[in-house]
Specification:
CATH architecture of the largest domain: 3-Layer(aba) Sandwich
Bound molecules: adenosine-5'-diphosphate
Shape: globular
Number of helices: 13
Structural class: mainly alpha
Strand content: 5-15%
CATH topology of the largest domain: Rossmann fold
Number of domains: 2
Helix content: 40-55%
Strand order of the largest sheet: 1-2-3
Distance between the termini: 25 Å
Order of helices and strands: EHEHHEHHHHEHEHHHHH
């Protein structure tokens, strides 16, 4: 790995949805040709919220399949399963010793998850951003293609990198151990929820459309998006279900449809059932090639062999970083 490095990961909590695709995977696709990229299925992050051990392996497999179907090319990037590279957790522990607990307790994702699962507030959940920092820093990544919701976690990563570099300077060379990674932004860095509240996310039922959804399912999911009477007029709302419908048209680059329905909205004659029908078709049109590719990969590609090879390469790079960190921390 000689070029600028890129790292990103998606939790193994189910199939990928439009938010993951437009907010993260599109960025990965853009970067895989220019840089040394590691794209991970972060299964250790998936077990910090309630999950079923029986389906976790299948979830991991589904994310890998979705990655490949979306166009990640195992010849041009490394695909990693986080738990197969134990250096992640070891580095996370080492980094946790230089970071304050109080800062982690203040992070929005921790607070949200605490509210969502009040009976499942575990150490791993609090530790999540430190593990995420370790994920990125293990590969000394400089660019991280993730959605806007991950910005606070990236800030933590930069803080940890800065602190490590200050506390454990490299002797003589003047070169710091860790770069301060930047977020690589996609045009759709925030895909709103179908419920009209917050972001599209795997853990909020009714909020998402999966990349593997067929047309009937997409229509059903969009039918549930809350709208208004269609007679309000004025500016298109910035939040709520109607805003989500318009945002999805924008994300899909359906400018003509967007303009048509924006005019109808202003003229107080918008028909949401028709808009949802056209939006469903546009989404399906985008997803159909991915679904065809996924079916081909599922029937012919040797996933296990690819993972085995990629894990070996990832561990070589990871173990070098870990060795350097331990030396600098005086542990060898
Ligand atoms: P989820 O929130 O659905 O559980 P993850 O936490 O695994 O998904 O996030 C995986 C990646 O997808 C991250 O880069 C995250 O920023 C991105 N992502 C998730 N939801 C959205 C969204 N609604 N809009 C934009 N990006 C998103």
């Amino acid at each position: 790995m000689n070029k600028k490095r890129v790292y990103s990961g998606i939790r193994a909590t189910g199939r990928l949805h439009l938010g993951n695709y437009f907010g993260a995977v599109k960025g990965m696709l853009e970067l895989q040709d220019q840089y040394d990229c590691v794209f991970s299925v972060v299964d250790l992050h998936a077990i910090t919220t309630p999950y079923d051990p029986k389906t976790l392996k299948q979830n991991v497999r589904d994310v890998v399949l979705d990655y490949l179907a979306a166009g990640l090319d195992p010849e041009r990037c490394l695909i990693e399963i986080q738990s197969l590279v134990p250096e992640h957790t070891e580095l996370a522990y080492l980094l946790s010793t230089i970071y304050p607990v109080s800062r982690l307790e203040d992070l929005p994702t921790y607070k949200d998850k605490k509210a969502q699962y009040p009976k499942y507030v575990n150490m791993g959940l609090l530790f999540y951003p430190v593990l995420m920092a370790a994920d990125i820093m293990l590969y000394k990544a400089e660019l991280v293609p993730v959605g806007r919701d991950q910005e606070p976690h990236l800030e933590v990563t930069r803080e940890i990198a800065r602190k490590f570099n200050d506390m454990f300077p490299s002797a003589g060379s003047g070169q710091v151990t860790f770069p301060e990674p930047q977020r690589f932004k996609t045009p759709a860095e925030y895909v709103p929820s179908l419920t009209g509240e917050g972001k599209m996310g795997k853990s909020t039922e009714g909020s998402y459309i999966n990349l593997t959804d067929d047309l009937k399912t997409i229509k059903k999911r969009l039918a549930a998006v809350p709208t208004d009477s269609g007679e309000l007029g004025g500016d298109i709302p910035a939040t709520g279900g109607v805003a989500t419908l318009f945002t999805l048209l924008q994300i899909l680059n359906k400018e003509d449809l967007y303009n048509k329905y924006a005019k109808d909205y202003r003229d107080k004659k918008i028909r949401y059932s028709e808009m949802k029908e056209e939006l469903s078709n546009a989404i399906y049109e985008e997803l159909r090639p991915l679904q065809q590719k996924r079916a081909e990969i599922e029937s012919s590609f040797d996933l296990d062999n690819m993972i085995k090879k990629h894990t070996e390469i990832c561990r070589q790079v990871a173990s070098q970083t870990l060795k350097e960190v331990k030396q600098k921390m005086g542990l060898t």
